[in-house]
Design brief:
33% of the residues lie in helices and 18% in strands. It contains ten helices and 14 strands. By secondary structure, it is of the alpha/beta class. The strands form three sheets. It has an eight-stranded parallel beta sheet. It has a four-stranded antiparallel beta sheet with strand order 2-3-1-4. A two-stranded antiparallel sheet has the order 5-6. Helix 3 runs parallel beside helix 10 and helix 5 packs across helix 6. A hairpin with a 4-residue loop joins strand 2 and strand 3. It starts with a strand and ends with a helix. The chain is elongated.
Length: 335
């Protein structure tokens, strides 16, 4: 951290600030120019409140010189994490397709969808059991009863499974789920993130609809600082003034995350747009932007879906998207 003092700051005031910084077990170096004095804080400056310092009468401004996401950050151009989930790799130049229904509704439903998407090229099966919904009257999922159906369908077709946890008390139920998803509403549920940090299981962390990329990365840092570095990020759209789509898909976040972080990042065009007809163009755009994969909602009968019917596509539509994504990546990335 760099602290630039105002030109009229007295030596006594500067020394008082230096002593306060040292009380936090940090070192401080002082550079005196012709008109200003600059304090350079050495050590873990995150323990200091930047806003508190900037409000001091003698301080002109404060600048952080290290990012707050030391584990999630990227140390070199080649520093990229690859997450291996049951032999399926996410990141490191691979492209991973995750597909399945918004919610598990029955054994027959999830098994039928798993069979269809597997033949179309999906590598992982997603399905919600615990569904946080805006309205208390909406379908909340099969809850604990839904997970065995998802796990059984995944095993039958050789697909690792992905499902969302909504409370840390549910974690014992997810023992056989391969990837635990943290939804947008829980991106800053820090107690949940810390509990996930104590696991060795991969975590799919979705960006909150009103959160910055920096906040997404610092949420990932919560998990990683607990010892679990198997984190996958997901861009799923943010809330803006636009109402034509459910959210606004921020594809620039893919490029920004790739620049700042070593973690793989996938895109969810289903939640981003909220409309099945927009899923294909946004899926192709995400692939072209350099995403490490896609997560797409697929239902064998979208009109009868108990959850987010408008954004679900059919298995046939998914197969078409997967084929076009593969062709696009071959054309752009020469793979």
């Amino acid at each position: 951290m760099i602290i630039v003092l105002k030109h009229d700051a007295s030596p006594e005031q500067a020394e008082e600030l230096r002593c306060w910084i040292r009380c936090h077990d940090l070192e401080v170096q002082t550079t005196r120019g012709e008109n200003q004095t600059v304090l350079v804080v050495i050590g873990d400056a995150d323990r200091l409140d930047e806003a508190y310092i900037e409000d001091m009468d003698i301080v002109e401004y404060v600048r952080a010189i290290t990012q707050p996401y030391k584990l999630a950050g990227r140390n070199s151009p080649d520093d990229r994490s690859v997450i291996d989930v049951g032999g399926v790799k996410i990141g490191g130049g691979t492209f991973t397709m995750i597909a399945g229904p918004c919610s598990v509704e029955s054994t027959e439903q999830i098994t039928s969808i798993a069979r269809e998407i597997k033949s179309a090229g999906a590598q992982l099966l997603r399905g919600g059991a615990f569904k946080p919904r805006t309205s208390p009257y909406s379908f909340q999922g099969m809850r604990a009863d839904g997970l065995p159906h998802l796990i059984a369908a995944g095993r039958e077709y050789g697909m690792p499974t992905v499902s969302e946890v909504t409370d840390k008390e549910q974690l014992p139920l997810f023992d056989k789920v391969d990837i635990i998803q943290v939804g947008a509403r829980n991106m800053q549920n820090f107690e949940l993130l810390k509990a996930l940090g104590r696991l060795s299981k991969p975590i799919l962390l979705k960006r909150g609809w009103a959160n910055t990329v920096k906040e997404l990365l610092t949420s990932a840092e919560y998990i990683m600082s607990g010892g679990n570095e198997r984190v996958i990020l997901c861009e799923r759209g943010i809330r803006t003034f636009e109402t034509a789509t459910r959210n606004t898909l921020d594809l620039s976040a893919v490029a920004v995350i790739k620049d700042l972080s070593r973690l793989p990042v996938i895109v969810d065009p289903s939640h981003a747009t909220g409309h099945a007809k927009y899923v294909e163009p946004m899926a192709l755009a995400a692939a072209a932007a350099g995403a490490d994969g896609l997560m797409i909602e697929v239902h064998d009968d979208p009109a009868q879906s108990k959850c987010d019917a408008a954004q679900a596509i059919t298995p046939a539509q998914f197969a078409s998207i997967a084929e076009k994504v593969n062709a696009l990546r071959k054309a752009i990335f020469r793979i």
